[in-house]
Amino acid sequence: MSEHSTFWTYKVILVAIMSCMVGAILTGANEIFIRLLELVDDSAAWVSAIATVFAAFGTISTLVFLTWQNINEKTALLHAEKKQQDMWDSQAESINFQKYQTHKKMFDKMLDGLESKYDGEFEFFDRDSLYHNIFPMNDFSHCSTKIDIDSNSEIEPDSLRDILYLYNQLISDLEAYATTPAQKQNRLLHQHLGNILSMTSILRVNFISKNEIGDVKVDIEKGFLIINVFRPIHTQVVLQEVLRGICVFSGVRLKDNLNHRHSSFFTRTLLDFALSPTNKRGHNVHFGELYEFLSCLYECFIAFDNSELRKNPEVNQQYIALCQLFSDQEKIQELSVDQTKIRELLHENLCVLTALTDDVSRLKRLSDKVRQLKRKIPLPKPSP
Fold first, then answer.
1. Among 57, 146, 199, 349, which is disulfide-ready with 300 (CB 3.0 to 4.6 Å)?
2. Which residues pair with 122 in a beta bridge?
3. pLDDT by residue (tens digit) across 12-33?
4. Are 53 and 3 in contact (CB under 8 A)?
5. Could you tell me if 296 and 370 are in contact, meaning their C-beta atoms sit under 8 angstroms apart?
6. Torsion of CA 83, 85, 88, 94, to 10 degrees
């Protein structure tokens, strides 16, 4: 019962007692009045009537005092209880504040650990918004360390549920290349790149570009690095490990794994996108001065990717060598600092193409292109 309702309860009781007192006094007074009217000279009855009145008045006065005393005690008790509750509320608020601050610091420490694990390959930005997207119900008055994916709080945009949905979409994209018709592969790739960009944004991850050969960036402002052509799965694995760390921190299990979901279809589509004259749709691929040479070598790779031609051991050997080249970022990087290796590669491919030009006219055009590029590279100076 509230303090207000208790006050009114005692007020009604007091009114009732006062009514009884007044009634008793009137009853005694009435008896005296009747005695006077009857002019009864009975002193004993007179005294008895007066005594009755004073006795009733005394009894009722005692009841009034006890009621008043009880009201005061109850009021004091309610005041003490309210004071105690206020103190408990203040303590609970202080505990929640400390818990919230500690939880945020632990979250930041977890993010710091992820940055260190990948040796500065990326950095988190706007950490506060990331925390509040993962824990939307947390504030200074409430702090929960676990997330219920099925709760109503997870319907908020950029919630952990949204991040998990986007992660599963990345897995679906990687698997889809094996079953998507060739003419739709480029569209799938642009969808895939868009999902990677969305994942970096929702996780507040900024990959630090070192302008490595094969870096693919979104053509906005300074450009956001999203993938490298020659390490096609790397940034997605990093995003997966960031998400895994967040899931462990929030008590959610990350069930799937994208590490082995990609296929050669994905790699081939990405190379086509980067090294063929296709519409990049707002993406920039960094090749420096190597683009012309790598594009030509990729044309050789496509030409040799023919079951009939690969029956020729020299063609097959060169095809395998190009496969290894385009799947090894370190070998690609070496080409950027040593032009003699580019010349050697062009020479090797030219020899194979020259042996095939009598049978395939389109290879004749490719061999001419390789020969012209080879001439652009000066011969190494003889050692003294």
1. 349
2. 207
3. 555 555 655 555 555 555 555 5
4. no
5. yes
6. -80
Q: pLDDT tens, 246-273? A: 999 999 999 889 988 888 999 999 999 9
What residue has token string 């070192």?
210
Residues 6+ apart with CB under 8 A from 218: 197, 224, 226, 282, 283, 284
Token pair, residue 236, equals 């997605």
Can you tell me the distance from the alpha carbon of 52 to that of 342, in angstroms, rounded to the nearest whole number?
128
**CB of 236 within 8 A of CB of 157?**
no
For residue 87, count CB atoms less than 10 angstroms from its CB and return exposed for 0-12, middle for 13-18, buried for 19 or more.
exposed
Distance CA 94, CA 141 (A): 8
In sequence order, which ranges of 203-277 are alpha helices (DSSP H)?
Answer: 234-250, 264-275
Which residue type, as a one-letter code, is found at position 367?
S
- CA torsion sign for 282, 287, 288, 292 is negative
CB 220 within 8 A of CB 212: no
Contact 143, 103 (CB under 8 A): yes
Q: How many residues does the chain have?
A: 384
Residue (of 188, 148, 182) closest to 164 by Cα position: 148
Q: Are strands 205-207 and 122-124 parallel, antiparallel or unpaired?
A: antiparallel
For residue 77, the number of C-alpha atoms closer than 13 Å in the C-beta half-sphere is 10
Query: Alpha-carbon distance 265 to 175, whole Å?
Result: 9
Order of strands, edge to edge, in the sheet holding 215-218? 224-228, 215-218, 283-285
Mean pLDDT, the chain, rounded, equals 83
Rounded to whole angstroms, how far apart are CA atoms 219 and 271? 19
**Alpha carbons 134 and 147: distance in angstroms, whole number:** 8
User: How many CA atoms lie within 13 Å of 182's alpha carbon, on the beta-carbon side?
Assistant: 2
Mean local confidence (pLDDT), 95-118: 92
Indicate the angle between helix axes 291-304 and 361-376, nearest 10 degrees: 150
Q: In whole angstroms, what separates CA 167 from the centre of its chain?
A: 11
Buried b (16+ CB within 10 A) or exposed e, 161-186: bbbbebbebbbebbbbbeebeeeebb
Residue 228: beta bridge partners? 215, 231
Nearest to 213 by CA among 89, 98, 325, 354: 325
